[in-house]
Write a structure and sequence with these properties.
By secondary structure, the protein is an alpha/beta fold. The protein has nine helices and twelve strands.
């Protein structure tokens, strides 16, 4: 059974229909990359998966159960969501920030909780920053710390919106490798990214969204075709190499 399923899901942001009858499934142990141009509906899709945007029509299922009928406390343990615009608004240390990821499992901090946090911070090269206030981190350091908090939850489903934004190339690779490992450990991982090279390298499948609709889903080679790049992005070229804009009149 698929871990997370969209059944003809449409979603609204105010009066705007941001998603239109999107159907897809995410398996446990896999990494799905949501790709597409700005305004395609990627973040709305991720927020709908997290239960933060209710479907206007269709259903979101978690292990076969309607997501909206799942108690919030259970969703918090089973789904971790890293928002694109996540910030730190108070000087909590990096250690305590990551420890917040354990809260859905109980208010009392255990030795097992501390071990999970330490392992997670080590995996993201953050132990040297564990005592630093989150408000004193660079943008890239904060992104890594917030991802560590999400991973420390040890959820069934991990949803990350542009987790490599503001990261240098090396740490971007490290983050995607960590998400790949999380999938390898059995999580269902969904990542929104504009980096098509990273999507091809680390994702099992890509889902291409354009104007709120799912245009293609499958392996990178089947999704990032010349026709799809032209229609959805208005570019031509190799996604792993040089891309160039094409005139609107010349699009497929």
């Amino acid at each position: 059974m698929s871990k997370l399923v969209f059944e003809s899901v449409s979603a609204r942001l105010g009066r705007h229909l941001a998603l239109q009858e999107v159907s897809l499934a995410v398996e446990a142990g896999s990494l799905l990359a949501l790709v597409g141009p700005n305004g395609a509906g990627k973040t709305t899709a991720l927020r709908t998966m997290a239960g933060l945007v209710p479907p206007a029509s269709g259903r979101v299922l978690l292990d076969g159960q309607v997501l909206g009928e799942t108690p919030a406390s259970l969703r918090a343990r089973r789904i971790a969501y890293l928002a694109q615009d996540s910030q730190a608004h108070w000087p909590i240390t990096v250690w305590d920030l990551a420890l917040l990821g354990r809260l859905p499992h109980g208010q009392r901090v255990t030795a097992a909780d501390r071990a999970i946090v330490e392992r997670t911070l080590q995996a993201h090269d953050l132990m040297s920053l564990k005592d630093r206030p989150a408000t004193a981190l660079s943008g890239g350091e904060l992104r890594r710390a917030l991802l560590a908090r999400a991973l420390a939850t040890e959820p069934d489903v991990l949803l990350a919106d542009e987790p490599t934004a503001a990261l240098d190339p090396g740490h971007g690779l490290d983050v995607m490798a960590a998400l790949r490992r999380a999938a390898g450990d059995g999580m269902a991982v969904v990542v929104v990214t504009h980096d098509l090279g990273l999507a091809q390298r680390f994702a099992d499948r890509l889902a291409l969204l354009h104007e709120g609709r799912l245009r293609a889903i499958g392996p990178a080679g089947d999704v990032l075709t010349a026709d799809n790049l032209a229609r959805c992005y208005g570019v031509r070229g190799d996604p792993l190499g040089m891309l160039e804009r094409i005139d609107a009149s010349a699009r497929c």
